[in-house]
Amino acid sequence: MTIGNSVTSIGDYAFNNCTGLTSVYYTGDIAGWCGISFGNSIANPLCYAGKLYIDGQLVTDLVIPDSVTKINAYAFYNCSMLTSVTIGNSVESIGESAFEDCTGLTSVTIPDSVTSIGSYAFSGCTAEIIWGENPEITSIGNNAFSGYKGNLIVIPDSVTSIGDRAFYDCTGLTSLTIPDSVTFYGCTGLTSVTIGNSVTSIGDYAFNNCTGLTSVTIGTSVTSIGSYAFYNCTGLTSVTIPDSVTSIGFSAFRDCAGLTSVTIGNSVESIGSSAFYGCTGLTSVTIPDSVTSIGSGAFCRCTGLTSVTIPDSVESIGSSAFYDCTGLTSVTIPDSVESIESSAFSGCSGLTSVVFEDTEGWQVSRNSNFIGYTSLSSADLANASTAATYLKSTYVYYYWREVK
């Protein structure tokens, strides 16, 4: 196929299923090719058999001239015969999937002029990413390196934000350097991460399923850890959450089965629902005095947990907070607690000692239809085995304390 240099756009699926097509020739120059607006369907075959011909010449070492200011989406998608790319000093943006599946690339030089990189821009590539001396890029888009097959990425200091799933499914990535200025996402091949001291938040799903991650150092400016931030990081053995952190998000460390030690900073106010759900390696947890609520399922199925310290600051313990913590043998409920929700200690078969610092005003519902209430007397609560039986009973639906 020959495409004339007057063509400015090629729509979605324009040549889909042209199975005999082996080469596409463009009669113009590289600048013209970069200026073509391609359909945003990845089924659009831009470089059949991985070959790109410009003015009749097969291009393997691509030099994009300074006259180009933008590389459009899908411009070089699937051009697997490309081995190197040098991007001109006037290019400001690299579009979505621009170099996706360019599997032959060994190096890409990105000049200082580039300020944004679109989704999937280098997905499927193994190329070394070479930045200019003084990069101006400030943002890297969602999925920008998703599926990247190389083992090293260094993000320049100019970057302040990295989009969702930017490093998703980077199975070969063993080293990732992220500057202090970044909020970010993560991937599976990492073994260690150091988060800079100017990072203020760890985003949702940041290191989701990074199963090889064994070491995390969290900077002292981080104030929040997002939902699923370290979900299923089974290689993590210990985590220190600095005093700067005030909230731990939903399922933040869920299913980190290798986690044996957690230090929670003294500024954390809330431990989110399912935050440490399924962390079966945890043996003890000290909750700092700053925490006022323990979310639903926060330590659910932490079967290795043998002791937990609940401070006087805690006002509520969520439903199933310690559900099925079969190794838990004792617990003290401070007088600050106003509610213990459904099944908070249900399934804690090893629980033999329960101490209520204040035994007044507690009641328990034992009816599966939630009707009829039985009051626990001070004597019952003072009796460790009776209190433990109530707390771990599968029939206990709800505990609450009357607000006086």
Q: Helix content range of the residues, please? A: under 10%
Report mean pLDDT, rounded to a whole number. 80
Q: State the end-to-end CA separation.
A: 82 Å
Biggest sheet details: 10 strands, mixed
Q: Give the neighbour order of strands across the main sheet.
A: 19-21-23-25-27-29-31-35-33-34
Structural class category: mainly beta
User: How large, in whole angstroms, is the Cα Rg?
Assistant: 28 Å
The total count of strands amounts to 35
Structure description:
Helix content is 5%, strand content 23%. The protein has 404 residues and is mainly beta. The strands form ten sheets. A ten-stranded mixed sheet has the order 19-21-23-25-27-29-31-35-33-34, with no helix packed on it. Strands 8-10-12-14-16 form a five-stranded parallel sheet, with no helix packed on it. It has a four-stranded mixed sheet with strand order 1-3-5-6, with no helix packed on it. The protein starts with a strand and ends with a strand.
